[in-house]
Amino acid sequence: MKQTAEVVIVGAGIMGCAIAYSLAERGVKDIVVLERDEIGRGATADAAGGIRQQFSTETNVRLATWSVRVWEHFAETFGQDISLRQQGYLFLLNRESDREVFERNLSMQQRLGVPSRWVTPDDIRELNPHILLDDIYGGTFCPEDGWVDTYAATIGYAKAARARGVAIVEGEPVTGLDQSGGRITGVTTASGSISAPLVILCTGPQTRQTGALAGVEIPVDPYRRMSFVTEPFDVLPTSLPMTIDFTSGLYFHPESGGFLFGMGNRDEPSTFEKTVDEEWMGTTVEALVERCPAFEAASILNGWAGFYEVTPDDNPVLGFTGDVEGLAVAAGFSGHGFMQGPAIGACMAELIVDGEAKTVDISEFRPTRFAEGDLAQEHNVI
Ligand SMILES: Cc1cc2nc3c(=O)[nH]c(=O)nc-3n(C[C@H](O)[C@H](O)[C@H](O)COP(=O)(O)OP(=O)(O)OC[C@H]3O[C@@H](n4cnc5c(N)ncnc54)[C@H](O)[C@@H]3O)c2cc1C
């Protein structure tokens, strides 16, 4: 392992790999990414792969929109197929209190060029004729939204970063963040130390723990979320959109001849328990069949648990921590980070090289906002 670097990135999920690639593109040399496990095997591997532009905060819409353009051309740019499906995200609404918020979000999204639109129950029937709509008064739909293969995308970034000279070391947990006189001086791992003037924490759900290695509090906590995939199942067409019952958080989309579905247990406290909760699986299946009775004929092929990396305002922590010079963070995407990877890579590289992110102004998500009491709440959390 190298003993010095210009930048050390901790974590090789979508964020670590996209930031490493973007920094290398900007001409930064001597970048080392340290991953305790394997590339793309953290939260990124557990994601449902959804990419959407339907957010409530302008910064998230801009990050998502910029990223969708990258996902659309990823295969040509990176030489990696990511199984892009742009079949839309269909939000179903039955809670009166969401109506005004979604209407307001739509006009903001449309102002930013997103082709999202309001849908009536009749429109919904055309988009997905298989769901029960008795309690649904409407919803929103964006045809450019969809899903991709998260592992392939991360590998695409990792390969492109390596081709530009980035060293990505797997099986190398960072156990210490070294500092002197309030400045980062490097990192310690089981194999030794690397001295570096800049360290970026891209450690997903583990970021409270990695921040603590430098005595810095980064409010990111893990919340268990489970996804399930059915056996190949031809009762429902593979052309259906990602369909989300916004009140319950139930979602499903076609996947590998079957369907991927999930629903977060919002009452479960923060945990690092990475097992499937059979009882919650039953609750999820009941909600699925209730909303879309055709699933009664489906059987589950497999299921897994992963962690949302949640912050107090459901938005990421991006930039220099302010507590220790040379320590930056890009984490806490609260369950919607994968899709923003491309834009986060570009923005973090700009912040580091130019001192300011220009692709999208990410200052709303600065690490110091929690201490300042200036939170940036995202409403559209699934
Ligand atoms: C069930 C589920 C569904 C989801 N669905 C979606 C979705 O549809 N769309 C979407 O955009 N997002 C979704 N997400 C969220 C998404 O997975 C995350 O926001 C995103 O992947 C975060 O990427 P990351 O690189 O920050 O974190 P990670 O992928 O977790 O990467 C962090 C890496 O840091 C490593 N690490 C941690 N500590 C150390 C250490 N001390 N030393 C070295 N390495 C370390 C970890 O091993 C890991 O590989 C979902 C998440 C879950 C759990």
What order do the helices and strands come in, and which of them pair?
Blueprint: E1 7-10, H1 14-25, E2 31-34, H2 43-46, E3 50-51, H3 58-72, H4 74-78, E4 89-93, H5 96-111, E5 117-119, H6 121-127, E6 138-142, E7 146-147, H7 150-163, E8 167-169, E9 174-180, E10 183-189, E11 192-195, E12 199-201, H8 207-212, E13 221-230, E14 242-245, E15 250-255, E16 258-262, H9 278-291, E17 300-310, E18 317-320, E19 327-331, H10 341-354, H11 369-372
Parallel strand pairs: 1-2, 1-12, 2-8, 4-14, 12-19
Antiparallel strand pairs: 3-7, 4-6, 5-6, 9-10, 10-11, 13-16, 13-17, 14-15, 15-16, 18-19
Helix pairs in contact: 1-7, 1-10, 3-10
The structure holds flavin-adenine dinucleotide.
Flavin-adenine dinucleotide binds next to helix 1, helix 2, strand 13 and strand 17.
How does this structure look, described?
By secondary structure, the protein is an alpha/beta fold. The protein folds into two domains: 7-47 and 151-220 and 313-372, FAD/NAD(P)-binding domain (3-Layer(bba) Sandwich), CATH 3.50.50.60; 89-143 and 222-310, 2-Layer Sandwich (D-Amino Acid Oxidase, Chain A, domain 2). The protein is 29% helix and 25% strand. The chain has helices spanning 14-25, 43-46, 58-72, 74-78, 96-111, 121-127, 150-163, 207-212, 278-291, 341-354, 369-372, and strands spanning 7-10, 31-34, 50-51, 89-93, 117-119, 138-142, 146-147, 167-169, 174-180, 183-189, 192-195, 199-201, 221-230, 242-245, 250-255, 258-262, 300-310, 317-320, 327-331. The strands form four sheets. It has an eight-stranded mixed sheet. Strands 8-2-1-12-19-18 form a six-stranded mixed sheet. Helix 1 crosses helix 10 (341-354) and helix 3 (58-72) packs across helix 10. The two termini are 40 Å apart. The relative contact order is 0.20. The model has no long low-confidence stretch (mean pLDDT 97).
